[in-house]
Amino acid sequence: MSITEQVVLNKKGKPIAVQLPVSQYKKLLELAEEMEEIKAYDRAMKRKHKYIPFDKAVKELKAKRKAS
């Protein structure tokens, strides 16, 4: 993905903001979300925890929702 941005400068010529097309902004948001998911996965995999089958996990979550 190539980014076409415009840099906004203040009166002293220092960069203070960036303008970019909405489509590129949305793509950057998607990429940031993916990176957060990858980080969460990596953190989860570092922990030692008991694995349970997916079906059992769904049943337990449904039971907790009914109880509250």
Task: Describe this protein's structure.
The structure is a single chain. The chain has about 70 residues and is α+β, with helices and mostly antiparallel strands. It has one domain (about 5-65). It contains 2 helices and 2 strands. Strand 1 (about 5-10) and strand 2 form a beta hairpin. The protein is elongated, with a radius of gyration of 22 Å. The relative contact order is 0.09.
Task: Tag the structure with descriptive keywords.
68 residues; 2 strands; elongated; 13% strand; alpha+beta; 57% helix
**Number of separate structural domains:** 1
Tell me the overall shape.
elongated
Main pleated-sheet profile: 2 strands, antiparallel
* Helix content bin: 55-70%
Q: Quick one: how many beta strands?
A: 2
Strand content: 5-15%
Calculate the terminal CA-CA distance, rounded to whole Å.
46 Å
Helical segment tally? 2
Brief sketch in words of this structure:
The chain has 2 helices and 2 strands. With 68 residues, it is an alpha+beta fold.
